[in-house]
Amino acid sequence: MDARAGAVEALKTDPDAVSIRRSLEVYYGDPAREAAMDAFYARFVRRGDLVFDIGAHVGDRVGSFRRLGARVVAVEPQPACTRALRAIYRDDGEVTVVEALCAAGAGSVPFSVNSANPTISTASPHFIRAADGAAGWEGERWDAPVDVASLTLDGLIAEHGVPAFVKIDVEGYEDEVLAGLGRPLPALSFEFTTIERAVAQRCLRRLTGLGFQAFNLALGDAMALASPQWMAAPRMATYLRSLPYEVNSGDVYGLSRALRHRR
């Protein structure tokens, strides 16, 4: 057992990590899933690249980016998750953990923790209202409001450098994260949900304004692109509107012109 796997196993029995135990069990320890993830992200991430993981949770994507040889800045506002990230990657000097939330501006943001299911904790009150009474979201409660530090993607870039890829998964707050970005990047992804499709539409408009040229998506937690062809933002917007409600969630991937021609 390597050091990271050992840290994960220790966390699973740590009373202070009880709130994230299910996440650790789901997201670690499946070699086939890890191999599929690495093969998927290899189209965006190369050895020596810098990657930002915004909404890192317990760091399974961080692990993939590191296996691909990237340097990673993992941004996560929940203390239980950042403790886990620091424990799992404590011996890895290429992983920087930032306990904060990315937003439109630097300062402080109200954040709603879902104690029973912290993977869907959010800074978006609109997301919580959309989930209220929605099919598939029954019983979810955001029961622990806190204030968390916020910073911007531009601020992260100023401190750490320009990333080759940014993964954004922040439960309905993706448009606010992108509002803090004022420059094009080679590639990024943002999560969407079918309970709040307007967020994805705002993200597409923002990215188009920043110069992103081509888009694709993955449905659910699938490590595969849903379309054989990359598409312009208007077609992606239509695609997202047409998805069945039961899809629930997925990730949109955006490429700048430079990366589109390089890959």
TrEMBL record:
MF terms (GO), sorted A to Z:
methyltransferase activity
Q: Which GO terms describe its biological process?
A: methylation
InterPro entries, alphabetized: FkbM_mtfrase, SAM-dependent_MTase, SAM-dependent_MTases_sf
Pfam families referenced in this protein's UniProt entry, alphabetically: Methyltransf_21
Q: Where is the Methyltransferase FkbM domain?
A: 53-187
Which UniProt keywords are given for this protein, alphabetically ordered?
Methyltransferase, Transferase
Q: Does the keyword Methyltransferase apply?
A: yes
Q: Please give the name of this protein.
A: FkbM family methyltransferase
Species of origin reads Micromonospora musae
